[in-house]
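Incident review: delayed structure delivery

Summary: a single-chain prediction request sat in the queue longer than the usual turnaround. Root cause was a stuck worker, restarted by the on-call engineer. No data loss occurred. The affected request and its eventual output are reproduced below so the record is complete for anyone auditing the incident later.

Affected input:
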Amino acid sequence: MTDNPGYLVSKVLSKEEVAHRCFKIGFDSILKFQPGQFVMIWLPDIDEIPMSISHSGPDFTGITVKIVGEATEALGSVSKGDRIRVRGPYGKGFEPSGERPLLVAGGIGAAPLLPLAKQLAGRKSKIRAIIGARTQNELVLTDEFSDLGAETEISTDDGSAGFHGTAAELCRETVGKLEFDSIYCCGPEPMIVTIVEIAQRNGIWGQASVEKMMKCGIGICGSCAISDRLVCRDGPIFDLAHLDELHSMNKIF
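Output delivered after worker restart:
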């Protein structure tokens, strides 16, 4: 984590459409980060938004943005050579664990899980990944997981590709057939709730990347509070057992 609250003015090096209204953007700031950490990107006169780091190389860092509103529309409209303002990385990252990890992503939730998959692949873990979306043209980063050697399954809510159902439903079916020693997930809140339940029922340790509205990203404004925790400072990565405790007290989701 950087202690510098200032912005890096970064040049966009690459932009690639990876799904419907979803873009992978690389910029020239080289950030030392842990999988699961995020950066704050300032779009002058529009907003500042948190974005998970999804990829990196020796001379770039990258994010994957899905257009869902004004700020992401502006970010998704940048072109190669444009300048963006970045600060971070912030938050706590994933703890890579297990020889047989299961990674479950819903929609753009694949983004923070991809660097984790890369780290786990470097540890020679036997990775299985479930990537879900509402429909086929919204599936994100599936090839990147496969390229890392992960046994990758896809699910779509409408059945247009892969398993007909949600990523959480496919997770439940997969955990019933195969053995895993860790589960990592990121996606919509109902998906995370279901995976917390699956992990607790089967005695599997795991972590989730939780998304909440953020304004400052550094634990000052309190807009991302969950009970006595702040997602930006104490997360965005939380142990599934802790999320289960909060859910049982009606303090999350």
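Verification: The mean pLDDT is 92.
Action items: add queue-age alerting; document worker restart procedure.
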